[in-house]
User: Fold these one by one.
Assistant:
Number 1:
Amino acid sequence: MKALDQLLQRWRAAKASPFVQEGDRLLDVGCPDRVLIDKVLAKVRSATGVDALLEPVSEGTVALLRGLFPDDFDFAAETFDCICILAVLEHVEDPAALARECHRVLAPGGRVVLTVPHPFVDEIIDWGIRLRILDGMAAEEHHAFDVSLTRPTFVDCGFRLVRERRFQLGFNRLFVFEKPIDAGQSARGGSNDRIEFG
């Protein structure tokens, strides 16, 4: 991984980490290493990382599992309090299936924290690879996901959007969705939504 890849990865982790709360049971989806997990380890109850390239590890409160989420795992319902999905959604063939499984395995009141790049980033990555300043990290697996579909994909599964923010010069977007505590609560919003843009 090139230095610029690492910088962008650390930047995403820095944007996501404030939404991982004290005592959370964390699931980090698509973590080829432990950047986010190590950043929040002191405050979480447990951390599980899943990625197709991981070497399985179980040490203390950390478990690293090889495989793709949700296809290769059958976590119990309400197992996690926070699910981080950083620079992954654009690699997923069925984002709606992923969102549904997040809702199933997330405890009420829990959060899904995502970063999703603008599709134009694919062109920037291509140039970065040609100039040998980026490895691209599986850019060929991008499915040209339209970032504007992120909100409806998760809201339609019962989440409510509580934060949306652009970063990395506007080329990346952070989303935080919450699973309502009351299953009967409307996921489509209302006067108590804490949506922030910018």
Number 2:
Amino acid sequence: MAELIRPRVFVFGLGYSAVAAAGLLHGQADIAGTTRDPSRSAALRSAGIDAMTFDGTGRTAAVDAALAQATHVIVSVPPGEAGDPVLALYGEDIANARDLRWIGYLSSLAVYGNYGGAWVSEDTTPHPKTERAVRRHRAELKWRRLGVQHDIPVAILRIAGIYGPGRNAFVALREGRAHRIAKPGQVFNRIHIDDIAAAIASAIRANHGGVLNLADNLPSPPQDVVTYAAGLMDVAPPPEIPFEKAELSPMARSFYADNKRADNRRLQALLGRPLAFPSYREGLQALWKGGDWGAESAV
């Protein structure tokens, strides 16, 4: 990064994706951020992250002080019924941070809604259907508005189904949670956690603003992923169940309401290279061969 000062990245919500990005940026930037769980703070600090507690209900002096020094802000806290808690409590502080150069908002492909299996790009009009997706889209619009008002690049990173160590079909099969639910024509995109981290780091380096689909090259039926993982494990896959006969929670069923294929060419242009894991096949192969498929990071 050709910058006058060392980057200081502040992360609201040190979850799976944000911690992976922090790990990739470690050594290139000072990293601080928040967690809802105070018991995670020590592990995060041992990983080089200045962690502090934030539960979305009130401000803290520690967050106030760290945020005032930030050059880059990543927001990975989902909106609730009352809206985006980060915007509500810290939107003005973020906009007025003296050295701020970039904001990244981690969103979801769910904001596009249902396109009947057709391709969607960053220029496609979102039609969110579920309440969670509607909240996400509202938050996106508010973050983009803040960026325009204060001349700050805001990257809206719409993320596909996330998988990686500790969160994958191998773990689901081992724990008996894997299902092969077949809904004709239904496809989903996915993305490996390493590609998410690389995308966030690249967006920071480029001061990228605008919408970006974080998705793989191969939108596929969900049952195909389970079948492929079972083959690598050399175990029998669970029986295929027609969607109409599947016993699903309302939340699980809502995932099947949207059907689309996400175009990722803008992401690959930003990275300047192909994805490390262009489909679930390469991603699962690497996890299986590496032997770390069940080992999620301690932080």
Number 3:
Amino acid sequence: MAVKKLRILALMHIGLVPPADATSREENTEWKTEFDVLSTLRGIGHEVMPLGIYDDLGVIRKAIDDWKPHVAFNLLEDFDGVPVFDMNVVSYLELLRIPYTGCNPRGLMLARDKALSKKILAYHRIAVPEFAVFPIGRVVRPSKRLTFPLIVKSLTKEASEGISQASVVDDADKLAERVRFIHRNLGTDAIVERYIEGREVYVGVMGDQRLRVLPAWEMLFTNMPPQLRRIATNRAKWSHAYQQKHGITSDEAKDLPPAVAERIPHLCRRIYRTLSLTGYARIDFRLDAAGRMHVLEANPNPQLAHGEDFADSAERGGLSYGDLLQAIINMALARRQA
């Protein structure tokens, strides 16, 4: 793949900068995404500088002034430990007039707030589970609009943080207990949704004006005991031992009802544009037994590790890992020119 050599400033959490002497990564390495992106971009022929960020925007300004990169590859998921602050970093990049990969500030703001994004989608008649928000410090009173079972999540945390089998509750006492768990352990408000039994389906979307919808992907639970819920818990996503024990894998979604398969690309484009997303994103659904698609959330800038869902789906759709990263960079450069 012949490409123009670029200077790429890779922004990442300061604790996820791969060791300078790292030549490979294990599956359980915390910095596997960062290593995969850095090593692949260098393999393509680009000059890449990793920059660790925590709570200081000044290091970004200094790196841009000193090194003059062509583009910033944004791998940040938070700033100063706060997930919703990532939009402010992107706003800063816009003020510095440096092209950057991934989603714009407005899309990040809308999608990171799970309640706000659901309200917007519902206004546009896109099906989302009924929900309620329980702020920290408020008395937990079950909403009359919600019927059990319910699932309790953090309003702003990502990557299934705080989600376990105990997140699905069947009565008011368990609901109050789990909401307090989110408040106490994660320090965020809680969002409570109607639990939908069904298939966990993920769909990747890429683009700014012209959108490309990737093959639908599914989390599979091939050896899950019947008493456990088939949900994307923190352990189901990140514990290799738990995945092996319960046969949890992911692959292209098979045997989708024809009407669902036909509708997915159009629906995903609507969601992507409704939430002002750009760059690349993953839309998470639950598909119920009746074939109805319910939007759980939209994830701008999803994980880009090689061998994970987004990259695997892109490869099934005809984009190698290197081509995927180059396409993401090309979008950033084209956006700047526009």
Number 4:
Amino acid sequence: MKLFLLVAAVAFVAAAPAAAGNGKVLAVRFDAEVNPVTQGWLSDRIDEGADYDALVILLDTPGGLDTSMRKIVQAELGAREPVIVYVFPNGARAASAGVWISEAADVLAMSPVSNIGSSTPITGSGGNIPNSDLKRKILNDAAASLRNLASAHGRNAKWADLAVRKASNLTADEALQMNVVDLIAPSLPALLQKIDGRHVQLRGFTLHTAGDTIVTKRMGFLTRLLNTLIDPNLLSLLFLAGIGGIIFEVFHPGVVLPGALGAVSLVVALFGFSILPTSWAGVALILLGLALLVIDAHVVTHGALTLSGLVALGVGMLTLFHDAPAPYHVNTWFVIALTGTIGGFMAFALGKAVQARRQPSAMPAAMVGAHGVVRGEDLVFVRGELWRAETSDGTSLEPGEQVEVDEVEGLRLKVHRV
């Protein structure tokens, strides 16, 4: 009897990972690019799914960063619950990094109108990798990784190789016929019904999902906000605004608001720099460009420093995220528009400054008739200010004499003795 109970207990423990959990399935909607922000959120949901019968990733992504994708794949393979990837809804895609996330799943399904593929690595600028040993190295590594995931789950490893080397892309029907995916389902409840009782050979799970309650999780406001804040165009703009606000506060202490907003913008920009692969040479060029613009505002160089600063600023912004994939580059037209706007403003300010220097000062009419005291041979003290002055009759002024202003000519006064 004791032996029977012991055998039964061992059998129960061995079957526990494959048995039904709490009658619930966690459905996680992932409809964003793959980056450190979204990767962290999805990895947390995979850990949370351990309390459910299964985790379903409702996938619709154009791809993203390789490092983030690999962390998601590792989380899927190490999950304590069955992981199902469902390319959903109709019109969704699993492209580029999304193919790796899909092939790492215990069960891979697609909605009827969806597609999967296009996993060829590209350069940071979005172009093809030039023919070289580096290209072969990158392609072979990516192809081997995706082939391994596909074959480990009993799927078409040859197509996985084509997805990397030839950017092959398949519709849902084509993917099913070629054994790239496990099944097609029109809805999530239908999918859970179809996979009920399926045994996952790789990790030893038996699915119990028919009729399970579906608990859906979507990215919250904070995650989407952080995901928006790592937009490269926005980050570069925030960085410029942050530095500009602090510089304004340094030269105009006490205004407070520009400095405070600049500090906030700078912190947000640095947060984005810590997430995306940032070129610090680009950061240095941006700082150099801003420094040259500030110096030119205080030194007469006839625009030479402004032109140099704009060039440094533009090149710095274009190289800021040079090592990141194409979607995470600063847009060239955005850089042209921004530097053009700054250059136009500097040209306008310089023109106004030159015009002001060439024009005589327009003093208020109230200066005429004002009384003053001579302080030197040609200096008079009028209304709290020292002015250069000359008499209307050309005679010299003596210190201590009282005078009255007859006329203002540029920065000189015409006076007569009182």
